[in-house]
Amino acid sequence: MSPGGDVPDGRSAPPEAHATDAAQDRDASPEAHAPDLPHDRSQAILEAAKRIGALLKRAGHPFALAGSVAVYAHGGSRYLQHDADFCVLPDDADAVAATLREAGLAVRTPPEDWLLKTTCQGQNVDIIFSLAHEPVTKEMLERAHVLPVDSVLMPVLCPTDLIRSLISAFSEHYCDFGAVLPVARAVREKVDWDVIRATCGDQPMPAAFLFLLERLDVIAPREQRT
Questions:
Q1: On the chain, which terminus has fewer CB atoms closer than 10 Å, C or N?
Q2: CA distance 121 to 30
Q3: Which domain holds residue 144?
Q4: Mind listing the pLDDT tens digit for each residue in 32-89?
């Protein structure tokens, strides 16, 4: 994790990829040079999340906030660095894209086949329909918690699904435990760790991360759990 506490969003992309996307998207967007953007980058990302969340709510699309803004909504760090992330159902992706376009936002289809991208308030926003190589499901969205995000209520990915998506994305090519460790500390009391262990705890990288959490006394070892 960066010193401020930004967090990946369940995808196997290195941090430098976000930086490249950010530069390209800001250059391509007419909102990039809007004069009334907050000087605080974290606040700018929150403003983007609030606007997108309000658009999706008004249109009636099932969704849940994900990524670092979701961590913030659950009580984690407010220092945000990269983008805002929203989960939607795969079958709703086209309808969501149409809603964003009707609101005047350009929607881009990147080479990756699990998300769409837009720019709002000069900030990157990812519309994700697959987390950690698994499709977003109705059940996942139904488990979301409705929380205030800088005063705007919206569904936020539940902590268990949030952590599971983050650690399931670990691989030999991208395995930044340091980015997710502070997130696990921030939401540990809200996570069903038995579900985490049952769904991804047998995979090598998630198992290693869970072992690290045990050694650091973030969570209790499996044998001590009741």
A1: C
A2: 10
A3: 15-224
A4: 444 455 568 889 999 999 999 999 999 999 999 999 899 999 998 887 767 999 999 9
